[in-house]
Amino acid sequence: MTSSHSHLAETDPAVAEAIAGEERRQEENLEMIASENHVSEAVMEAQGSVMTNKYAEGYPGERYYGGCQHMDTVENLAIDRAKELFGADHVNVQPHSGTQANMGVYFATLEPGDKIMSLDLNHGGHLSHGHHVNFSGQFYEVEQYGVDPETGYIDYDEVAARAAEFDPHMIVSGSSAYPREFDWERLGAIADDVGAYHLSDIAHITGLVAAGVHASPVDHADFVTGSTHKTIRAGRGGMILTTEEHADAVDKAIFPGGQGGPLMHNIAGKAVGFGEALEPDFVDYAERVVANAKTLVDVFTDAGIQPVSGGTDKHLLLLDLRESHPDLTGEDAEDALDDVGVTVNKNTVPGETRSPFVTSGIRIGTPALTTRGMGPDAMTTVGELIVERLNNPDDPDVASEVREEVDRLCAEFPVYE
Ligand code: DSN
């Protein structure tokens, strides 16, 4: 357990017990949801601090409340560290999430009914890139590009041709489940050719970009958005990077346009997490995240399970189960792995025929296990355990053996010492 929560245990045992249960769950299971990670105790201390008590509407030096001197210090630290990490001219660290960050950019640049072009959710895109159940799909006219069904890679010639035809106001790049690097330069050039803004959403790869392990879109996009709790371990939240040209519009779109008081305790967490990412060992962490994902690709490929696009360039892989396990849905696989302490999520795959609640694939990520200190040997074992379970989803003996190994790995690589 990371802390005693002594006050909480006394005043609200029900919540204290739920938090203790979650601490145990994280320690005793292998967290392989690609968008999750474990922050440091320092980040948690900042987030669980008196910073939660303070209103600080406005921006550093221009607040609508008195007593904001320490808010200004922390927000400026978060901004300055993010500028250094990403080489951006202007940073807004107030978005409550990656989706709020995207909303801020849309509100800063588009009118209702304007046209956006983005990666299809079934091909790895995100709800906030124009899906019909999200405000972005309801306020704007949306055209989506996808991956080549044969290769699993984005076909940039096709994107260029579709953009020329659709004439969007904005091209959105970035993804939740596309395992390959984006060609930001090409996407920026396509946007320029059709006179569109380029918004690059790096939510999943914020840490990889900060570490230089994935190419940066900062020089090829008008706006870069991201969340701060995935491959970068700065606590739950969002951010926007942009140029001086768009700084004022972005800031106004976030506050007062779309949000009220900033979550200053989360901004304190962002400042601490960005500071940690500036340390030299963060590059090593990011490199190990990618190396671990490639190790998993090798294990799954050897076992005849196909990763979409044949592999990965980053922290995640998307397993297409249709050929290797035609009777096992993504939902079945998620449940079978959950039973043995391996947490993943079901995910649609390109050419999906099942519903998003069922799916034909699972998405697997390495950021959290890498934070626990796992390297190639442990990752090979984890991959083999997943294969064993997927091949025998109804065998209780296999389930017990896999669970035992999961327990051993969790004990060997604790999250919080
Ligand atoms: N829900 C996140 C993910 O899992 O990819 C993105 O917002």
TrEMBL record:
Required co-factors: pyridoxal 5'-phosphate
Pathway note: One-carbon metabolism; tetrahydrofolate interconversion; Amino-acid biosynthesis; glycine biosynthesis; glycine from L-serine: step 1/1
Organism encoding this protein: Haloplanus salinus
Recorded family membership: Belongs to the SHMT family.
Domain Serine hydroxymethyltransferase-like: 8-386
A Pfam entry, by short name: SHMT
Compartment(s) where it occurs, according to its Swiss-Prot or TrEMBL record: Cytoplasm
Keyword terms of this UniProt record: Amino-acid biosynthesis, Cytoplasm, Methyltransferase, One-carbon metabolism, Pyridoxal phosphate, Transferase
GO cellular component terms given for this protein: cytoplasm
GO biological process, one term: methylation
Subunit structure: Homodimer.
Catalytic activity, EC: 2.1.2.1
Name of this protein: Serine hydroxymethyltransferase
Catalysed reactions, semicolon-separated: (6R)-5,10-methylene-5,6,7,8-tetrahydrofolate + glycine + H2O = (6S)-5,6,7,8-tetrahydrofolate + L-serine
NCBIfam families: PRK00011.1
Taxonomic superkingdom: Archaea
HAMAP family listed in its UniProt record: SHMT (MF_00051)
N6-(pyridoxal phosphate)lysine: residues carrying this PTM: K230
